[in-house]
Amino acid sequence: MNLPNKITMIRIVLIPFFVFFMLTDVVPYSRYIAAVIFIVASLTDTLDGYLARKYNLISNFGKFMDPLADKLLVCSALVCFVAIPENPMPAWGVIVIISRDFIISGFRLVASDAGVVIAASWWGKIKTVVQMLMSILLIVDFSGAVIDCVEYIFIYLAILLTVVSLADYLWKNWKVLDDGNM
Known about the structure:
There is one protein chain. This protein starts with a helix and ends in a 9-residue tail after the last helix. The model has no long low-confidence stretch (mean pLDDT 92). It is an all-alpha fold and 182 residues long. The chain is built from six helices and no strands.
């Protein structure tokens, strides 16, 4: 297993620790510990991609696991947000974001069966960055009118970009569903 793939696996291993600290008050400042874990895990996404491209270590394992690790991290945070009553993330927004991930994963599976590799678009990458920034804001949960407003802006921007990136993805790749007549 090459270094970028090991870094991807570290991101996956960090997820249960993030969830534990996010949902418990066993130790003081557990939400801040969760935030640090989430930030470190998010940064590994940039690091593993950079190393894979720089040193030509791109692998099928990495192509599969890297986006899966991102989805697991973000979806874990979203489920935690719904579990916390005072969190402003609406359950319907979580459903929209997770549904998009299921749809894209299904598309990638069909494309893979047809021998087609579908690369991530810039819309998808921007969506991921905004979702991660939104998650960090909601994890640390600072209070105040301005911070609350910024949180809502990021929540609805993340949901909007989720829908836009899905539409872009479907528009560019609809032929994958054309029973092999690409």
